[in-house]
Amino acid sequence: MVARRNIIIIIIIVVTIVILLMRLFFIQVLDESYKITAANNAFRYDVEYPARGIIYDRNKNILVENTTTYDIMITPRELKDIDTAELCTIFRLSPEEVKNIFKDLGRNRSYRAFTFLKQVAPERYAMFKERADRFPGFYAVVRTMRVYPRKVGGNVLGYIKEADTATINRNQYYKSGDYIGCTGIEESYEEVLRGKKGLSIYLRDSRNRIVEPYEGGRLDTSAVSGKNITSSIDADLQEYVQLLMQNKVGSVVAIEPSTGEILALVSSPTFDPALLSGLNRGQNFNALDSDPTHPLYNRAIMSRQPPGSTFKLVNGLIALQEETLTTTTHYHCGGRYPYGKGVGCHGHLSPVNFTNSIMVSCNSYYCHVFRNILENKKYSSTGLALDAWREKVQRFGFARKLGIDLPGEKEGIIASKQMYDKRYGENRWNPLTVISLAIGQGEIVTTILQLANMCATIANKGYYYIPHIVKAVGDGEKIAPEYYEKQYCGIDEKYFDHTIQGMYMAVNGIGTAWRVRLPDIELCGKTGTAENPHGKNHSVFVCFAPKNNPKIAVAALIENSGAGASFAAPVSALTVEKYLKGKISRTDLEQFMLGLDLVTNNPLYARK
After folding, report:
1. Domain 235-267+301-605 = CATH 3.40.190.10
2. pLDDT at 133
3. Is 0.70 topped by the overall pTM?
């Protein structure tokens, strides 16, 4: 037994030695990359940076492209006497600036290259190139800088910045001085847009002069440009909605219901994306970051607000599906829901059925509707009925991230049994305790993206496609498969006709949005007023058109402005008309919105 054990130990030792010898042979003889790294001072490595992919809108208009710039590099060990006066002339630097740059190098005399100047314009580089022989140790690396033909979509496009230490430590692709996409499409599609760096290796002689490409260039690699991206954004529509939202705080999202493609995504105030490109990026970023209106904050996917009466559409559909409501059910409204603490309502015709309740946005009607949902006898308790309701609400895309291909999306909040048991105690609350949920208030907050998606779901009569901002990558490559799959909300198609008719009558009948009806466009909409404890109420509106063949669904929220019909409805209706017709007939609405300033004299947005 002992002899056998010794043999096994000997075999293990021999195998280990053989593996180590094979590895050393591979490293020292076969794998030239180790040889190159070990003999670092005998080589110079020139990185070739790829051009970043271009971003287009859905109509192939360029949103983001590149311009050539140059980083001027210095190799400290190769530096000799430098004519600093001439250096100052070429690059328009002061003697003090040059002195500080060299001072930062200190006694560094390595062969590792350092950046002397970043993003030098082509005309400055041309002057340098003519006199390059007078500056030993200096050389240039070709880089690109993002440029923006139009001042649209700052929050959609994102920007690029220099990779920080954490990124470099986390991802070995990035080295000091590399750029990386930050926010927006630039971040979401970074690996597609960035391309692949190239590398040239040169051999030095005994005097450290570059003599030839190492191994005749056999180990060199060429840079591969990033892939272009076609976004779903309509640049003309995006630009127009940004104009309408000038001097207002809020967001607008427009979706093509048949695909889930986002036609416009505006967070206001916005910013010119060119501000975050070039040498002044840091200074401009600090100014934007300290702005009290927070233009860098993408309200469309991050800001969570009560949906107000727009949420009545969801409660109505769930009640129809649960059969606690029929389309012919009537309720009387005397100006308020009379039970519990009561919920006020505005003056309108009464009693109303389901379709007319949407048209006039009756609060009392939906208090009855929601109470019946929670008192449904198929559930043994109010808490279980609430959680069943919550699950159905989530199927519309609420209380979770929809999965848009932009970073930073928030999920929203929908009330649950657990939430109320913790607050009030188990079995110590009832439907009247939480009746504000009936009208989209209370423990319910959503994003404008989620409301636009809800509207697209109704337009499609029961399903949606996950909203996305990119149509195609490269030469028509498809995006992720989940963006092509129908997401069903679990409501039978037959219930949507009555809902849509109510939305149609809200605009084209004697409903709450009659002021924004459009000639020759069957606009279907729903107003909402979101209560705001910090100031005026938020104005909310959702709509789609045309009624029978929807091409666009829109949701808008304007903060601290008032009722949904007053402000969010006009901007939404104009968005629809601009997209469908390419021109505006309701110039009265347009002039009203263009002249509206809700920021300048608002103390909420004043600098501290």
Report:
1. no
2. 82
3. yes
